[in-house]
Design brief:
Blueprint lengths: L13 H17 L8 H52 L9 H5 L4 H5 L3 H12 L2 H6 L4 H63 L4 H8 L8 E3 L5 E3 L4
Length: 238
């Protein structure tokens, strides 16, 4: 019998914890004289279900934030590509001439498009700040207007990417933080298991088999499951 111990439940998911608590309630209901032990388990199940709902919402929020970030990163990369193409032609296709050299003289466009959040936003902000010196190096008013327009687009794309990154990090932190609540519920369950074991043995002295039948982890899905190729896959901990 797998007992509900700290070691056995270290990585127990909140979903499986709720299943375990529900199973204990079903087992206690089999004997009418054990019904008095059910109340704290019912309260615990409600807390597990509420935590499970928060986890699902947080996980969905993180998934959405990741999708939004990917979208804004694609928009940023496309804006950089447009800036490169337009300024390359303004520079007479000379990579050493303005305005191209100021924006792409030290780093290649393909590299910028692969930048992560911190490098991408740093590049976007620093490039927008080059507007004044670049414009002063240009003589054509039409070229200046185009550069202003391109940098305005880059500013917008950079700000949107930065905000999307912040939302993604906040969502990831929220989901990770829920694991603290899960571990607290596991500890509370451990305490309740001990109390319930005493309650069962008080009514049925020496009936360790009855304790195991009610409190063992028999009906709880394993926290690790084997895939067809034999590789073990772990459930999420939160």
């Amino acid at each position: 019998m797998r007992r509900f111990t700290a070691d056995a439940t270290r990585d127990l998911t909140i979903e499986n914890l709720g299943d375990y608590v529900h199973g204990v309630l079903v087992a206690l209901a089999v004997r009418a004289d054990l019904a008095g032990l059910s109340s704290p388990w019912q309260d615990l199940l409600a807390r597990c279900d509420a935590h499970d709902a928060r986890k699902r919402a947080a996980r969905r929020g993180l998934n959405g934030a990741r999708v939004a970030y990917a979208f804004h990163h694609a928009e940023f990369a496309n804006t950089v590509k447009k800036l490169s193409s337009e300024t390359y032609h303004l520079a007479g296709k000379d990579v050493r001439a303005e305005p191209y050299v100021s924006f792409f003289g030290a780093v290649k466009v393909a590299e910028i498009q692969r930048f992560g959040l911190l490098k991408a936003t740093a590049y976007g902000r620093s490039t927008v700040e080059l507007e004044a010196p670049v414009l002063s190096a240009l003589t054509s008013e039409s070229a200046k207007d185009l550069v202003r327009s391109l940098l305005a687009e880059l500013h917008t794309a950079t700000a949107a990417l930065e905000e999307a990154g912040r939302v993604r990090e906040d969502a990831a932190s929220e989901l990770t933080g829920l694991d603290i609540g899960r571990r607290l519920l596991v500890r509370q369950t451990l305490d309740l298991v001990a109390q319930t074991e005493v309650g069962i043995l008080t009514r049925y002295q020496g009936r360790r088999d009855l304790v195991d039948a009610i409190l063992a982890l028999t009906n709880t899905p394993a926290t690790k499951r084997s895939r067809p190729n034999g590789v073990e896959a772990s459930d999420e901990g939160t």
